């Protein structure tokens, strides 16, 4: 009779571990799948809200164009693709390309930025004039034959 009781006690402990493992797997799934997806969706919504006329964009189908107008009421955007005006949902914008003028100005500002002390070149003191050293005699300077 005691062996039957001991066998049942062991099963209770294993079911507790099963529940703990299940909870850990749910938490792991949340932090590896759901949370990063929410973060990515939030970044996309911020990008959609920053859309303005004149931005160069890439659509989800690969179309490159320039934003002609943004309608916040209908959540649409009109794209100018070499004179062809197309209306898309704002969510169809995959990427906003950086301005070419902004990228051209960025290197110029980087050059003007002051370098940290570790990167600064240490100026060497000016070379001291040579002190009176005995000059080599003509015999020492000429090659021996």
From TrEMBL:
One annotated GO biological process: protein transport
Topological category with respect to the lipid bilayer: Single-pass membrane protein
Region (Disordered): 99-145
GO cellular-component term (any): plasma membrane
Coiled coil found in the keyword field: no
Pfam families: YajC
Broad class of where this protein is predominantly found: membrane
Protein name in the entry: Protein translocase subunit yajC
Keywords: Cell membrane, Membrane, Protein transport, Translocation, Transmembrane, Transmembrane helix, Transport
SMART domains attached to this UniProt entry: YajC
Superkingdom: Bacteria
Compositionally biased tracts (Basic and acidic residues): 109-145
Subcellular location, record wording: Cell membrane
Entry keyword annotation includes Cell membrane: yes
Residues annotated as transmembrane: 15-34
Protein family: Belongs to the YajC family.
């Amino acid at each position: 009779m005691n062996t039957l009781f001991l066998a049942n006690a062991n099963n209770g402990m294993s079911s507790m571990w099963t529940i703990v493992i299940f909870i850990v797997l749910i938490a792991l799934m949340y932090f590896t799948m759901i949370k990063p997806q929410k973060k990515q969706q939030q970044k996309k919504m911020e990008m959609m809200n920053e859309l303005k006329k004149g931005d160069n964009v890439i659509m989800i189908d690969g179309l490159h164009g320039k934003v002609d107008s943004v309608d916040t009421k209908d959540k649409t955007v009109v794209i100018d693709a070499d004179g062809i005006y197309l209306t898309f949902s704002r969510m169809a914008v995959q990427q906003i390309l950086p301005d070419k003028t902004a990228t051209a100005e960025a290197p110029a500002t980087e050059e003007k930025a002051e370098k940290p002390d570790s990167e600064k070149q240490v100026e060497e003191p000016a070379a001291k004039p040579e002190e009176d050293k005995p000059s080599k005699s003509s015999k020492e300077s000429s090659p021996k034959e």
